[in-house]
Amino acid sequence: MNRATLIFLGAFLALSFSWAGLLLSNVNSYGGLAPHFDETDNKAYPAQVPGLAAQGAQVYADLGCAYCHTQQISGGEPSADLTRKWGERESYARDYIREESVLLGELRVGPDLRNFGARDSTAAAIYLHLYNPQIETKGSTMPPYAFLFTTRKIVGQPSPLALDRVKVNVPAGSEIIPTDRAEALVAYLLNLRDSYEYPVEKQKNTPPKPPAAPHGAAEHKPEAHK
Amino acid sequence: MSAHPHQSSAATPAAESGPADASVRVPVLFLLTSGILWLLAGSALAFIAAIKLHTPGFLADCEFLTYGRVYPAALNALAYGWGVNAGLAVALWLMVRLARANLPGGSLLLVAGSFWNLGVMLGVLGILAGWSTSVPWLEMPRQVVPLLLVAYVLCAAWVIGALRHGSSPRLYASQWWLLAAVFSFPWLWAAAEAMLFFAPVRGTVQSVVGAWFTGGFLLLWFMPIGLAVIYYLLPKLIGKPIRGYYVAPFGFWSYIVCAGWVGASRLTGAPVPAWTQAAGAVASLLMLVPLAILTVNLLYSVLADGLSVLGRSVVLRFTAVAAAAFTFCLGRASLMILLGSPRLTWLAVSSDYLILYGVFSMAVFSAVYYLTPRIVRRAWPYAGLINAHFTLSFIGLLVGGVALELGGQQQGRDLANGVAFTEVTAHSLPYLQTATIAGVLLILGHLAFALNFVKIAFCPFVRARANAAPVPVELTRTAPEMEVAP
Asked: Which of A8, A145, B126, B184 would disulfide-bridge B141, Cβ 3.0–4.6 Å?
């Protein structure tokens, strides 16, 4: 056989092998993972993503938040994700099945956001942080997203979404309000909540606890087999 | 398949640059010019991104230059603009030379090349305008991808065409690597685009697809092109055949078989099946086999006679750095697996940077310095700028790599020890500032490179000046004993 043909064929086979081994087998094994229906709650988990949050996911992608923020909580050592209270448990593959585009992130320039909505943050605090992170977090290297806000004259009642006048510079009679994109983004962030414990994953991912037997039981067990 | 030196009958510049070189002059110059323009644009964007990492207020009001857009725009300009254009240019020239082909109608390639560049421009502008997919290395909006794939296939067809038109019955190591790269890239890309954007798979399988593509793009496009250049230039520049060339095929095949799997190691600790992560780790460790073989072939060929050989030519210094970077990055990847080094830190960025800059770009620089005088039949106008380019890019590579490496280690320790996040950020600032300084050095180097290139390629009148100035010997002609037949 012609050597060039051999190289083509070899490269093709090697690549196909990795494609079948890594991608095809994973599509087959958990590409069809279904939501878990909890009969006591009468709800399916993970829950459907509300419309505004789904729009916010697109803002999250277009602004490239995922280059600095991961969305994956690690459970075991040496990760300190759980002690940092970034999540209540490690992330499971099932958590992501409702997402159109899964952005796990590769680098933590900023904190993990996977369980952001379950932490004690309010929409007002997130708006302020997006507008200028330095206001509440001195020394943050997050860029200000002031372009997600507009300043407008107050006509009638001030907007309930307007930024806190005490914290930002705003001319008298005006207010700074989030644009639709900022509202969608914040809805998305607040919807990031992986608190539900799936029985299957919990059972699979929790290492069996050593039996809480009286002292010395572990040494006795092998002897029992003898 | 032989790599033994033989005496070429006439080693004058004219004989050295034969009809093969002349036949690809226009397409190679076109691809290189576009590649270099993308290199400048990409490094400017990367520089803005680097500043923003420690000075977030910089250009903060420009939405299209926000970090999350300017960084992927830089990455795509460098990977698809510089990486693919320059990679194809080098591949075409090498293939034509090694196959001893006379490629007719190469100017038709300009059409395909123009479409490729148009596509990359639309893609990068799309990212800046907010249509980024945010999937690392695949950010370009999916609408431009079909155009790019067709343009790529039409360009790459010429590389294959050169092989078929060639009169040489032998296939040298460089050609194996080129064939593998030219073929694997569209395969990887089309499959990943299809599975992510056209018929998206569900859940974190998407992340597996992304990691498979990224690993493949780095290890089956950038690395092989760099290796093809090193295999070709080293024997010519040191005047000796490749050491242990007979094991080169084992190096090639073991590399190709493992490379596709290595990407999965990017997912260590992610919510994907444990066996997938383990497969990536095992593949990274198996890469030690090709690593050992290629290190003997390449790095040992340079170092066997002592470092003094590097003084012989600046082109060789570029090639040698690429060979050393190859050994370093694969060795480092295996070591990181064994030591279980911290994940989701700057260490991951530094791995990619080493491949993209240390191996690929350094090798391509050496190839451009070697091939351009031969296809335009003129000497480099400013020999001093070549030395400046080498010094700047070598120091820049070293400083940038060390900064990311130490910064990543620090960040990993801080994250694992539960240090308050504001402290983690504060600790990483000095490293990020150092990385920006490295960026300045690299950009200055690129400017020196671009200036020299524009002069040699587009200003015929510099020939007279060049003859007056002393030009390093290997830039104008190859001494007979350095002519090594592939």
From this structure: B126
